[in-house]
Amino acid sequence: MTAQESLPAGSTPSKSTSSSSTAAPSSTTPPLHVVVVGAGIGGLLAAIGLRFDGHAVVVLDQATAFGEVGAGMRIPPNSFKLLHRWGIDLTYMKKTYSNGNRFLRFDDGAVIADMPHGIPEWDFGGSYLMVHRADYHAVLLDKARASGVEIRGNSRVDGYDWDAPAAILSDGSRVTGDLLVVADGVQSKAREAFQGHSLPPVDTGDISYRVLVPGQDMLADPDMRDLVSQPWVSSWCGPDAHVIGYPVRGGEIYNVVFCVSESTMNDQKLAEGETKLVIADNAELVDRFSKWEPRVRKLAALAGKGFLKWRLYDLEMVDHWAHPSGKAVLLGDASHPMLPYMASGAAMACEDAAVLRKALQGATPATLREAIKTYERVRQPRASALQRWGRQLQAAYHLPDGPQQEERDAAMKEDKEGNPIYWGFDDRRKWLFGHDAEAF
C-alpha cells in the first residue's frame, strides 16, 4: 500500500435481475469516491446501496477475517422491504419467521400479553425474520463484493483528515475519497470531531449475557420444545432483569439474552471501558435466575461455558451526523446506538443506508454538503425517537412486583397509546414496521 491512495475508478455495476431500484439512476453525474469505515451491517449496507448507484466504494475494517461472530438478531419488515428491493437475497439464508412478541411473568411463566405480527408481508410490506447475525453479515459481505465494493481487512483507521477527506490507517497510509461514511460503532473514534465536544457512551448499569442453545436440546425437553416449535420472541419480565429468547436458523439454535442490572451480579466484572468478556462458567447466571420459572432456570443451566457478557451503553443525542467539512457522515451505532430492548439497531442502520443512498443520488463533490445535511435531517428524528423508547423499555421491563408492575401488565394488554411496549400500540407498530426509508 502506498503512502497515499485514492479509491479505484468505479466500474459498471453488475446487472441485477431484482427491482429496478438496484440499477444506477439515469444521470451523467460522475460517480463519487466513497470511503466507508467499518464493515459491520450498517457499513456494508451503505456500501451496497452506493455501489448500486455507480459510486466507487471501498470499505475499511480492522478485522483480518470475517467469520462466525455474534448471536441472534431480528430483521423487521421496515428493513426487509429495503433488502428485497435492493436484490439482497435471503432465500437460502437459514432463518425463522417470527409470530410476534410474547411477554411472560418471571416467576410462573404466565403470559402477560401476546402481540402477534399478523401477516407482516400484507400489513407492512415485508417479512419479520429472526436470524443469526453471522449469517446475515455473510450475505451482505457476499453481495457487497459481487457488486464491486472493495473490502479491505486488516485496515485499522487511527485518524482522519476531514478536509481531504481521508481515513488515516495505523501504518500511516491514507485512503482518500470524496466522502467518508463512518460506521465504526458505539465506541466511535470519530464522533467527537462531528460534535465539537466529547460525547462518550454512557453505561446504563445493565449488562447482557448472550447465549446460544442447541435447538435439539430444547426439542428433547417437553417443557421447552414449544419455545422452538412456536417461534415467538419470548420476554420474561422481572425485578431488575428480563430474559429474551427466540429460535434462529429455523430452530437449529435458540438465542437467549439475559439482560440484568450489573449490581445484582457477582461474577467477573467488566473493566473500565471494557465492552465485553467471555464468561467461563454459568454458575452465577444459574444462581441469579434460580427463583425464576422453570424454563428460564433451564435456559441458564444450558448456557454452559464460554458465553459473552456485554456492557449495555446508551448515548446522549448526537446533534451532528454530518461533519462541518461537508465531506463525512456518521451512520449506525456511531450516531444512534440502540439499547437491545427495541430490537431495532440493525434495522435503523439499514434505514440510514437507504436514506444516505437516496440523498446522494445526483450529488457531486460541490453539492455534498447539502446532500449529507438532507440525510441528517431525514434520519435524525426517527432514530432519536426509537433511542428514547429503548430507555423507557429498560425501566418497564425491570419493574419489581407491586402497583407499578400491575399497572404495566394491565396496560400491556390494551391497544392504546398508554401501552408501555412500543409495538403494543397499533399506530406505533405501523409507524415503525410500515416505514419506507426511501420514500422522502
Automatic annotation (TrEMBL):
Species annotation: Sporothrix bragantina
InterPro entries: FAD-bd, FAD-dep_Monooxygenase_BioMet, FAD/NAD-bd_sf
Protein family: Belongs to the paxM FAD-dependent monooxygenase family.
Keyword field: FAD, Flavoprotein, Monooxygenase, Oxidoreductase
Compositionally biased intervals (Low complexity): 8-29
Pfam name, any one: FAD_binding_3
Record-given protein name: FAD-binding domain-containing protein
Organism ancestry: Eukaryota, Fungi, Dikarya, Ascomycota, Pezizomycotina
Region named Disordered: 1-29
Domain FAD-binding: 33-388
Top-level lineage group: Eukaryota
